[in-house]
């Protein structure tokens, strides 16, 4: 066996393309791992105003055929696959095993030294098993969270400090950068602005102007009552997150960095209460032009910004980090750097013995598992065969495992890292520094042409399947009601993603602390927040379009004692006594008696004992 194959040495071959079609052809022409990165323009770091991108509206929801600038197609190949005339970049962030310093030594000596260092045995025992300490439930640690309303929980993450900073930066951008001294904005206006954006996630119209339309098949009355279209467009034009004169030098995502930093601090304010955590990438869709936009083949969202996420098993986000491309020169692979960064977040806000981490084969390597074991961090991940530091040579081949049938497996352990290969519909390899194949369990598989069959399943596989999908669940929740208000600024999708993630985090916290009878589903939770943001302050007295009894406002608005004003209206049924009246509450839009010796108005706005 070639020593380069034994060590799993990989190099990156980079080629430049000018069209997406050329890049896709290069991506599909090889079976190796491929990543395609949009290269920044020549003036990417200059002092030009890169705020606004003029993208046609009909292209915002479609995958473009071409983009500006050049593509760099990077593929991982074995050393022997590199032709003499191909340029090779040895600083590949995806490489997980670097070439040994003794690369010039004879093959036999290098292999002998490696086998001496790593004694793989057919065993399931660890030399020093990692300890586990049970984590207390969040509802027991913070009982006051159980009685909070949806908007109160959301404001724990999107708090007053974030709102205050956004108001200041928006005013500063309008007055100083855009020379518009007459522009004014307050926190109440900004919250209504956010409410309209969140409303567009589940009540989507073709254009944002349609929310203020007076046509019977368009228009949303609650939006018309909350804010005029002119005010909405003005706020959207001047909305800003960071001071342009104090941006973080060298960070291409500096315009949204303050918002993500503040949210990350708020996500961990109640510690990290999940025992099972997952690390993976999340894609934010974007079809404009920017140097950190990524293209990832075979992903649901192929074009967009990549965000590294640390999530709980139910999709609660603890940390988000925007990937901005290659960092300073380092020998560590990208996956290792991401995992180490997330582990530092866990160590800062919790104790590593309370948690176990799961990630996929992009991150996993023997070196990473060994490093985490020295830091008492328990981890499990699928692993590529060339990243097992020789364990793959001690295991049965993929061909033999497939021939043995479903459920067959083989494993080795060196006392620190356990590596297993298991045959299902395909052969999968997993590595862990604390889990093994025992106890073996049973699972059901559907076989074509016959009834379901029962096959043995190792414990490490079962645990990985149960705990890995936290980030994928977060992606599904974000895509369910993703805000659809379009913008012309490159950072607008990242802002919408941050706002959307804050709502998902609030709902997951609400589901964790509330019992089944009071627990709200995702859509109802969002509707409560939107109605509170749009009707939280005094509303103008508009005529109601259409007849019929209207639904009650959420309790936190109905009983808040703010903005409940008596006005006259057309005759209709009282909400309390069901007799005709000509008075109503302008905020609740409910007809209520305030005369003839009746006090239905006070009864309706008083919470039950």
Question: What's the topology here?
Answer:
Layout: H1 3-7, E1 10-17, H2 20-28, E2 34-38, E3 71-78, E4 88-89, H3 107-117, H4 138-141, H5 150-157, H6 160-177, H7 187-202, H8 221-226, H9 229-238, H10 257-267, E5 276-285, E6 294-295, E7 303-312, E8 317-322, H11 334-349, E9 356-359, H12 366-374, E10 378-382, H13 391-394, H14 398-404, E11 409-413, E12 418-423, E13 427-432, E14 441-445, E15 453-457, H15 459-467, H16 470-480, H17 492-513, H18 522-535, H19 555-558, E16 566-573, E17 580-585, E18 590-591, H20 600-604
Parallel strand pairs: 5-9, 9-10
Antiparallel strand pairs: 1-3, 1-4, 2-3, 2-6, 5-7, 6-7, 7-8, 10-13, 11-12, 12-13, 14-15, 16-17, 17-18
Helix pairs in contact: 5-17, 7-18, 10-17
Largest sheet composition: 13 strands, mixed
Please state the average pLDDT score: 81
| Alpha-carbon distance between the two ends | 79 Å
Structural class: alpha+beta
Could you tell me the number of beta strands?
18
Helix percent reads 25-40%
Q: Segments where pLDDT lies below 50 for 5+ residues?
A: 1-12, 42-49, 54-67, 77-117, 538-549
CA-based gyration radius: 29 Å
What percent of residues are in strands?
Answer: 15-25%
Overall outline: globular
Enumerate how many helices there are, as a single number.
20
Structure description:
It is a single chain. By secondary structure, this protein is an alpha+beta fold. Among the domains are: 3-95, no CATH class; 143-248 and 483-530, no CATH class; 361-460, no CATH class; 556-604, no CATH class. Helices cover 33% and strands 17% of the residues. It is built from 20 helices and 18 strands. It has helices at 3-7, 20-28, 107-117, 138-141, 150-157, 160-177, 187-202, 221-226, 229-238, 257-267, 334-349, 366-374, 391-394, 398-404, 459-467, 470-480, 492-513, 522-535, 555-558, 600-604, and strands at residues 10-17, 34-38, 71-78, 88-89, 276-285, 294-295, 303-312, 317-322, 356-359, 378-382, 409-413, 418-423, 427-432, 441-445, 453-457, 566-573, 580-585, 590-591. Strands 1, 2, 3, 4, 5, 6, 7, 8, 9, 10, 11, 12 and 13 form a 13-stranded mixed β-sheet that branches. Strands 16-17-18 form a three-stranded antiparallel β-sheet, with no helix packed on it. A hairpin with a 7-residue loop joins β6 and β7 (303-312). α5 packs across α17 and α7 runs antiparallel to α18. The longest helix is centred in the C-terminal third of the chain and has 22 residues, at 492-513. It is globular, with a radius of gyration of 29 Å. 33% of the residues are buried. The model is unreliable at 1-12, 42-49, 54-67, 77-117 and 538-549 (pLDDT under 50).
């Amino acid at each position: 066996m070639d020593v380069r194959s034994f060590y799993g040495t990989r190099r990156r071959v980079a080629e430049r393309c000018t069209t997406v079609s050329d890049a896709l052809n290069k991506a599909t022409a090889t079976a190796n791992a491929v990543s395609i990165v949009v290269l920044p323009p020549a003036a990417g770091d200059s002092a030009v105003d890169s705020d606004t991108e003029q993208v046609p509206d009909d292209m915002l929801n479609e995958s473009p055929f071409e983009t500006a600038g050049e593509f760099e197609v990077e593929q991982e190949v074995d050393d022997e696959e590199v032709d003499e005339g191909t340029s090779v970049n040895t600083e590949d962030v995806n490489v997980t095993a670097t070439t040994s310093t003794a690369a010039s030594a004879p093959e036999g000596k290098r292999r002998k030294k490696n086998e001496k260092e790593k004694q793989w045995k057919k065993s399931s025992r660890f030399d020093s098993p990692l300890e586990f300490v049970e984590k207390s439930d969040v509802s027991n640690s913070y009982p006051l969270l159980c009685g909070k309303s949806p908007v109160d929980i959301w404001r724990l993450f999107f708090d007053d400090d974030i709102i205050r900073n956004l108001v200041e930066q928006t005013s500063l951008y309008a007055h100083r950068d855009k020379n518009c001294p007459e522009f004014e904005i307050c926190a109440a206006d900004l919250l209504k602005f956010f409410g309209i954006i969140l409303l567009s996630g589940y009540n989507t119209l073709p254009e944002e102007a349609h929310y203020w339309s007076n046509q019977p098949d368009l228009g949303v009355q609650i939006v018309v009552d909350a804010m005029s279209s002119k005010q909405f467009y003005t706020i959207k034009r001047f909305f800003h997150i960071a001071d342009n004169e104090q941006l973080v030098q060298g960070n291409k995502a500096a315009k949204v960095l303050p918002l993500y930093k503040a949210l990350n601090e708020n996500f961990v304010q109640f510690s990290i209460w999940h025992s099972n955590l997952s690390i993976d990438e999340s894609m934010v869709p974007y079809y404009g032009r920017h140097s950190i936009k990524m293209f990832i083949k075979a992903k649901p969202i192929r074009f967009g910004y990549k965000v590294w996420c640390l999530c709980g098993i139910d999709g609660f986000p603890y940390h988000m980090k925007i990937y901005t491309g290659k960092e300073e020169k380092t020998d560590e692979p990208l996956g290792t750097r991401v995992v180490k960064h997330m582990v530092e977040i866990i160590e800062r806000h919790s104790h590593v013995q309370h948690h176990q981490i799961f990630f996929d084969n992009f991150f996993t390597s023997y070196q990473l598992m060994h490093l985490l074991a020295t830091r008492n961090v328990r981890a499990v991940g699928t692993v590529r065969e060339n990243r097992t530091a020789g364990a793959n040579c001690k295991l049965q081949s993929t061909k033999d495992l497939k021939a043995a049938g479903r459920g067959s497996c083989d494993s080795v352990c060196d006392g620190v890292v356990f590596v297993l290969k298991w045959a299902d519909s395909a052969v999968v390899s997993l590595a862990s520094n604390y889990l093994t194949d025992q106890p073996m369990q049973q699972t059901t598989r559907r076989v074509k042409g016959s009834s379901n069959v029962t096959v043995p399943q190792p414990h490490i596989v079962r645990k990985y399947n149960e705990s890995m999908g936290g980030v994928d669940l977060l992606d599904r929740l974000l895509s369910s009601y993703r805000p659809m208000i379009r913008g012309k600024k490159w950072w607008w999708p990242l802002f919408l993603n941050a706002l959307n993630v804050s709502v998902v985090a609030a709902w997951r916290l609400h589901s964790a602390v509330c019992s089944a009878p009071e627990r709200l589903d995702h859509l109802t939770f969002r509707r409560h927040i939107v109605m509170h943001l749009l009707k939280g302050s005094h509303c103008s007295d508009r005529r109601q379009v259409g007849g019929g009894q209207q639904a009650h406002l959420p309790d936190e608005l109905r009983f808040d004692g703010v903005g409940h004003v008596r006005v006259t209206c057309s005759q209709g049924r009282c909400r309390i006594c069901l007799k005709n009246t000509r008075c109503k509450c302008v905020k609740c839009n409910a007809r209520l008696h305030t005369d003839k010796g009746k006090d239905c108005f006070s009864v309706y706005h008083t919470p039950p004992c």
